[in-house]
Every structure is written in structure tokens, then in C-alpha cells.
Amino acid sequence: MMRKCVCGKTITLNSRLCSECAEIYGLEPNEWPEWLRWMLSDIQRDVQYEHTHNDHVSIETGVTYDSFGNMKAKPKFALRGCRTETHLYEDRHNH
Question: Which of 52, 26, 53 shows the shortest CA–CA distance to 40?
Fold first, then answer.
């Protein structure tokens, strides 16, 4: 997985700045401008969110998750009784 530097260049996940931005701003966070620290915090928050929530994505349609993250089957609904009969549709033009 790759991430973006504040300038928009693609960098590795371990890096916070590309080599050019590291040359300009340095590698010490306490020397960076406030806007740069805020942007890097936002980028890091997005990366952590993707990392922690990527496991919860499911492409199966028959499975859902409860509030604890446990898998459970989706309920199946069946039509019973007069819903399957045609007499419900005979006079629908009256309604």
C-alpha cells in the first residue's frame, strides 16, 4: 500500500514526506510549520482508518456483522398467505 505526500507525490507507507519535501521542511516534526503537521496528521488518520476498517468489508451478500463484529446470517423473508394469491391484484385499479 502506498500513501501520498503533502505535495501529492506517491511515497511508501513508512515515509511521512517525499525526499524533496524532507529537504525543504526537514525531518523533525517540531520544526515543521503548523499547517504541515495538521496535514500529516490528517493523512495518518486516513491511513489508520483504512487499515483498521479494511477487515470489515465483505463482498458476501448473505452475511452481515453485529455491533461486536461477529458474523451473522441475514434474515430471509418469505411471503405467506394471501400475498401469493392473485385476488389481491384483481381490483388494484380501484385503489
Answer: 26
Cα separation, 34 vs 19, whole angstroms: 20
43, exposed or middle or buried, with CB in 10 Å at 0-12, 13-18, 19+? middle
Q: Give the 3-state secondary structure of residue 31.
A: helix
Which helix (H) or strand (E) element contains residue 46? helix 34-53
Distance CA 74, CA 82 (A): 25
Q: Is the pTM of this model over 0.70?
A: no
Query: Which is nearest to 62 in space by CA: 72, 49, 50, 47?
Result: 72
User: Per residue in 40-55, pLDDT tens?
Assistant: 998 888 888 877 776 5
Nearest to 41 by CA among 53, 51, 29, 31: 29
Type of residue found at 22: A
